[in-house]
Amino acid sequence: MVQALHKGNGLSLELLRGCRRVIRERDVILGLMTRCEDASETLTRAATQVIKGGEGSAVQPEILNSKFQLKPYQLVGLNWLIMLYQNNLNGILADEMGLGKTIQAISFLASLYEDGVCGPHLIVVPASTLDNWVRELNLWCPSLKVLVYNGSIEERKSLRHNILNNQVEYNVIMSTYNLTIGTDSDRSLFRKLELKYAVFDEGHMLKNMNSLRYRHLMAINAQHRLLLTGTPLQNNLLELMSLLNFIMPSMFSNSTSQITKMFSMKSSEEQNIFEKERIAQAKLIMKPFILRRVKSEVLKQLPQKEESVEFCAMTEKQEMFYTTLFQKLKGTTNGEKRALNNVMMQLRKMANHPLLHRQYYTSDRLATMSQLMLKEPSHRDASPALIQEDMEVMSDFELHRLCLQYPSLQGLQLDQSVLLDSGKFQLLTKLLASLKDQGDRVVLFSQFTMVLDIVEVLLKHLGHSYLRLDGSTPIADRIVLIDSFNTDAEIFVFLLSTRAGGLGINLTSANVVILHDIDCNPYNDKQAEDRCHRVGQTRTVKVIRLISKDSIEDCMLRVGQKKLKLEQDMTASAEGEEGSMPEDMATLLRASLGL
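The chain above was modelled as a monomer; its predicted structure follows.
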């Protein structure tokens, strides 16, 4: 047959082998889908038995703090987790930010405790949320004894000794991603411990099955795994498959190579039939293992969120600088990823504010400044050439601040008109005035801490009161700043760096979110928005994105919208469904709770 194909039709053996490979890969995927459908049916039958037997957990675990009550959708999530456990399945709780995934996880561990499963459990979290998790555990379920695995190498050595020799009593070990896999000794501890559950907060950090972190965490000795993430699908289908492989290695690990090939294929600009088929396949595979609810589905009482995009025309000088920079960078990338990322970053900075580059402080001006710096006691013995060399890698705004810092450079700082010369600043000036007149309060995000530095100049110029929090703000100070803003209505603006603004921050006293510059990953912006649009908000939240017209930000916006569309295709519910849970099972769970 092979010879006939080769001679009669001109088909190569390589083509035939390729067809066989594709058929084998599809057979593996079909087999996976069959097993996942069986798991879904198992959960549905379990939910049916709960209703028939009248044994549904319609109330929260008794050992939870009686001062707090789980919301109906959180009870549904708790029952889903219980049914996964009872059927020896693991899952991803992927509720949208602000719906209380932490509380649902704590409630689940409390339910296990009441049923005699007292641990030990491991909860792995980003370092920035460790204190918040410990606080919530102690607040919601003080019956669970929490051991924090943290500290220096010597402190962790002592903790390991106490743990392995049963010299400390605990139900839950709390640790961070970095320390859980920090050293050979750290990793050895969690391979030796016989854990009941390993819970991973911000579980999307496990989206790359080829990473060292992924492999180390896969080695943790736990009977069950639970991932918590508000962003279950960020860039592609393969990332979701990585998460599913992590929670259910017994089901997925033997198929990782086929999964990788099947779901990493590039699609055309327009979604073709095969692309749609892959999304449908991925949706079937993920359905039993992931619960995704969005606020609009479960919090009918939450005020609406109105989103808008404001396209800002660059100022005359800014546009001239941007065009010059674009021409300079054009054709210099050679297609290399690192070079492309650098070009993109340089254009983004110029689109936001010209002072993020060096335009005004020319080499001649820097030569003069380097000579003047010799008058400063700290630079008296320095070399002017080396001083100038250091200055040449600084931006205009950094050099402006240098002039303000040293008396010898007084008079060389930039004029106020230059500091405010940005298209976004011109729009912000009008926008903030209007919002203040309406009695609104604002949270303003930026990717760049230096942009926040320049925004501070604008706010001071306009006379607006503000507070600021970024990645360098100590955890203890964050709580003070947030409380100050939430209790003092006279503070008009809260400045936040986008990455710092998504971890344990509640700013529901503000009702306007301004994204001065968008993130390449739209989920980071969504997370930032949810600092205001969450439980406790009483007013409609306005989200305003500032986009420099005819710039790289236009492209970023379109790419971000496509990423969000992919998630919608994957997890958006059909009418009557709750999140990505099968319609019949979601209905059964609600019925079991009398909802």
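Residues 2-65+79-293+578-592 form a domain with the Rossmann fold fold (CATH 3.40.50.10810).
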